[in-house]
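Hey team,

Filing this mostly as a record. A colleague (T.K.) asked me to run one chain through the structure pipeline before their review meeting, and I want the input and output archived in the tracker in case anyone asks later how it was produced. No errors, nothing strange. Just documentation.

Input sequence:
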Amino acid sequence: MNQKQNLALALALLPLAALADPAALKSSCDQGDGAACMELGTLHIDGEGASKDPALGVRLMVRSCELGHGEGCFYAGEFTLSGQGGKPDPKSAEGFLSRSCELGCAMGCSGLGFKLLAGSELRKDPAAAAGFLLKGCDLGDPDACHGLGMMHEEGQGVDQDPRQALMFYGKACDLEDGASCARGAQLLAKGGEGMPANPGQAQGLYQRACDLGDDESCEALRPRR
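Output structure:
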C-alpha cells in the first residue's frame, strides 16, 4: 500500500467528528483527554467544523498519543508516514504505530506488522512483523490472523508450518473472515508437511466460507459432473 492509499485509509477510518464542538474538544484536550485531542485533530485535518490545518491536526494526534490514546497513536503514525502536514518521517511513524500497539490498539499492531512485512514504506523485518501481527490477531483483527496464516504457510519470517497456518486461518475464520475460511479449506484439502489432507473438514470450511459470501468456495461445494 503506497502513501496516498495509506492516507485515504486513515482518513476513512477516522471517527466522525464533524458535528463535535471544536471549542469543547480543545478544552477537553487541554485538560488531558486524549480522545478529544484526536477528534479535534480530525476536524483540522478534514477542514470540517474547524480550519483546515493538517500540520495542526497531526500535532493534535501526536498529543493524543502522548496522553496514552492508542487510536491517536495509530493516526499519528499513519499521517506522519504519509507526510500529512509535513515531510514523511518513517522512523517516527514506526514509533507511533508501535506505541499504538502497546496501548492495545489492534489497528496499530496490524498496520505496523504488515508494513514491516512488505518493507516498502518502513524497514523490512518479517520476524518483527510476525510479532506485531500476533498481537493484532490476539486483539481480534482477522486480517492479522490471516496474515500470520500466510506467513506460516509460506515460511516467511517464521517456520513453515501448515498446522500453525491452519490455526491462524481458523482464528480469522472464527472472526467471520470468509477468505480465511477458504484458505484453511484449501490447505486441508491438499494437506501439507506433517499434516495429512482432510477432505471432510475442508468441506466444512468451504461451507463456512460460502456462507460468509466467498463465491469460489460456493463453487467448490457444487457437485462435479
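Quick notes for T.K.: The longest helix spans residues 34-46. The chain has a mean pLDDT of 91.
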